[in-house]
Sequence to fold (467 residues):
Amino acid sequence: MHPGNRNLVTIDDLPSGEIEALFSLADEMADSINAYAGLCQGKIMASLFFEPSTRTRLSFEAAMLRLGGHVISAVDIGASSLAKGESIADMAKVVGGYADVVVIRHPWEGAARVVADYAGVPVINAGDGGHEHPTQTLCDLYTIRKERQTLKGLRIALWGDLKHGRTVHSLIYALARFGATILFYPGPGLELPEHVIRRLSTEYRGELKRSEDLDQGAKRKFVPIDAVYVTPSSPHQLAMMPDISIQVELKAGVDALYVTRLQKERQAPAAEQRESGKDYPVVDRRLLRGKEFEKTLVMHPLPRVDELACEVDSDPRSMYFKQAAYGVPVRMALLSFLLGAREIPTQEAGDSFVKKTSYPVYKRDSGVRCPNKNCVSNQETEVKYIKPQFKTVSLDPVILRCIYCDHEVSPRYVASSDWHQGKRENKKYHSAGSHWARKIKPENLIVFASEKEAQARQFKPSRYVRR
Ligand code: NCD
Fold:
């Protein structure tokens, strides 16, 4: 199949079958890394890194050079026209005219989606703020598969800054699709964001057990766990979910411990930083003596700071430098696929353990904005052309998820577009929590952040407006 304009903005842009096929290609490429110098000859990759990077940028550039292609780059926002107030869309259109593929890292969440919307060539997200980092996930999964020969039904523990860590977010969604059990060990105040948890339970239909619900036996045996997420290990087992015993899961040990650093740059006030930095959990030799870690792969996307002791480096369980090294063959496979230089067999959703839910998109301009200040849709240079768009995740209660950054908003007032039949006096709005909200068809939904917004659009309060 020719991929046309396929992008990798979120890890969900690649079905599980394609991920496995990319890994087989990466295996071939790793075995004879110099044999592919003709594959992308004459192609140009634009490497746009507007946040610090060592591994991701250099492994992408090395991958493109190994494929016989060329690299053009911009690595400093201050040295590009973005500093003059140029929009991301304009930059994307221009760079898309110079290159055959664009790799972008940007501090705003959702920036890579905007580049993909405007570049006209395949776009790869190399990290957009605290949102996602799908190619790091490919390196992580590739490492696990190399060591464990499978990606299915594994028990993976995620450690550290689960709130701001984009690598963790992409990894979670992929693991859920491969039927994993995920254990969460967050630093203080660094638990998974609510929208990630909701996405796990609504889209991947797994079960999340908070630590207070775990039985005492399980809790005593292990270092403090915040929560455990269990995906059904095959679709037909969904009905049997309540029977899965967390304790049995935990006793079987952890396949991989994924350590992350405190993402200081994404924490707003200095006080918050001090608070989370104080008791940030550390992985060292002593911790790894625990029985549950006997056969555990110790992973880290790197760079590490103090959360992973150097004494672990000589332990055969440490995987992080291998993870970084795999970046080249994995990105070679991805680039040659997206550039249409290599075909890979496509297997569709049937190969996934969990069939994802798709939601209707809310596009009306009714004044509701994404609540995330760091979302691309809220930036001064971008509001001129980006219209907020949301997935309608639920009508009871009303929950909209931003299509750029995944943050959620629950507007307070709703109306339906088929009730007023063009007659002004029938244009009524209701409280989002009233029984009317549940009756509105997603395609007719209109939401308002405030009564003022509703009234500015000529809607009048119904009897079902609670103040
Ligand atoms: C990560 C990133 O940039 O999100 N690094 C990487 O790409 N390997 C992790 C981090 O910076 O902590």
Remarks:
- Confidence is low (pLDDT under 50) at residues 234-244.
- Residues 16-31 form the longest helix (16 residues).
- The longest strand covers residues 44-49.
- The pocket of N-carbamoyl-L-aspartate is lined by residues 55-56, 127, 133, 136, 166-167, 260-261, 301-303 (CB under 6 Å).
